[in-house]
Write a structure and sequence with these properties.
single chain; alpha+beta; 14% strand; two-stranded parallel ribbon; 4 helices
Length: 85
């Protein structure tokens, strides 16, 4: 289904995420999606990208560093949307 969806939608219509701010949570030890990929996104989208690099995390970042990921998401949400009630 993912392949069909990807083929059915032109890449430019969704790949840049519109104009919204984007947070990239990157494991510093990720061998599948290496940290260089996050830097390329930052280069392409500039200030729209907030890059959070987490040490001690590979591609399975959620089970490897759950607290660090939760803290990053909470911080980014507050930064972008203000205080959450």
């Amino acid at each position: 289904m993912q392949s069909a969806a990807t083929q059915g939608m032109p890449l430019p219509s969704w790949s840049g995420g519109g104009r919204a701010p984007i947070m990239v949570v990157q494991g510093k030890q990720d061998a599948v999606a290496p940290p260089e990929n996050a830097l390329l996104l930052k280069e392409e989208f500039g200030d729209r990208i907030t890059l959070v690099e987490i040490d001690g995390a590979g591609h399975a970042i959620l089970p490897e560093q759950p607290r660090a990921v939760a803290d990053a998401v909470s911080w980014f949400t507050k930064k972008v949307y203000g205080k959450i009630q």
